[in-house]
Amino acid sequence: SPEALKRAIREAARAGLHASLSRTDLSVAALALELRQQGHRVIVVTDDYALQNLTARLGLEYKPLRTRGITRVESYRVQCPACGYVSRRPGERVCPVCGTPLKRTRKHYNRRQR
Predict the structure, then answer these.
(1) CATH of the domain at 67
(2) Which residues pair with 62 in a beta bridge?
């Protein structure tokens, strides 16, 4: 649903994951939210660390397939190292102010509850 997609995008931007997630990743998270809201037990199976981080932040279950999976839920800032512009737009990789490639830096993390 459009509401679930907006929630996934909003949470990805809040966590600074928006530059690392594709539109498909966001759609998978939105579908999982929608199915959970309908009463289904949903587990997102993915080795993508950014998608695991987003699903954990959304309160969804995930299971890695070939990797160990994330050990903590992290937040990032996507920022221009030249002028300081902070991005909140999904997929933005270049600073719209000065043209410098944006960098992702870790802000803080919470240990993942097992």
Answers:
(1) 3.40.50
(2) 44
